[in-house]
Amino acid sequence: MTNTIDQALDYARAHPTRDGKSWAGWCESLIWRAGGFTRSFASAQLAGDASGWLNPDWTTAPRGALHYWSGVGGDGHVAFDLGGGTLLMASSRVSSLGTALGLIHFLDYKLPEYRGWSLRHGTETLARSATAGAGTTPLEDDMTPVQEKMLAEVHWMLSERVRPQLNALHDGTGGAVHKKLDVVVWALTDPKAGLRKMLGDLITKLIPSWNGHPVMPTAPKPGPPAS
Fold first, then answer.
1. Which CATH architecture best describes the domain 5-125?
2. 3-class SS letters over 7-49
């Protein structure tokens, strides 16, 4: 399981250097290690490419989001959002937590080629913190393998199909809708969120069979008119 954003920050504080050397040039490595992700990328550019649609409005990014930039010699750049626009990153521009490691506000970073933010690092997201679902009790994740497969399809649909269509509307509500959608997508990937199990059960009821593609129930044909 991946780390929470608090655990990612704790990792950074405990590792002021990268294997005894500077963190400069290793922004993607920091994200991979601190986030506890299973997949690493050769560059932040490739990580951003694999993370689906990127929201270009940095002001709507929640705590735990990942910000992606292009440029930097083609390798791009990536950083964690700690809330309020404060970023955790590996960069020669910061040093508050270590050698080329620290915090900086988004507006102070000023790398021009901003791509956008996402909750995803590739196909993974950070685990939610214990306070993320305040007022709720985490539920055990006892989804069946079939439900897991269905859920992966739903997650892909929300990230790759629904979100881009919302972005294309340009009706002034996209930002708020995207933020709510991101919360849902994040919850779908959290084994303790409860939403996974609930949605899995719902899909099972709606879809009687599964062979790699959803099969929606066919509505019953109307019978002959009453005489």
1. Alpha-Beta Complex (3.90)
2. HHHHHHHHCCCECCECCCCCHHHHHHHHHCCCCCCCCHHHHHH
pLDDT for position 20: 95
Question: What is the distance, to the nearest Å, from the Cα of residue 138 to the centroid of all Cα atoms in its chain?
Answer: 19
CA distance 54 to 57: 9
Q: Cβ(55)–Cβ(35) under 8 Å?
A: no
- Check residue 63 and report its DSSP letter: T
Regions in the chain scoring below 50 on pLDDT: 131-141, 170, 174, 209-222, 226-227
d(CA 137, CA 201): 18
Question: What are the distances in angstroms from CA 156 to CA 6, 51, 52, 162?
Answer: 26, 11, 9, 9
Q: Where are the domains of the chain?
A: 5-125, 145-206
Give this prediction's pTM.
0.60
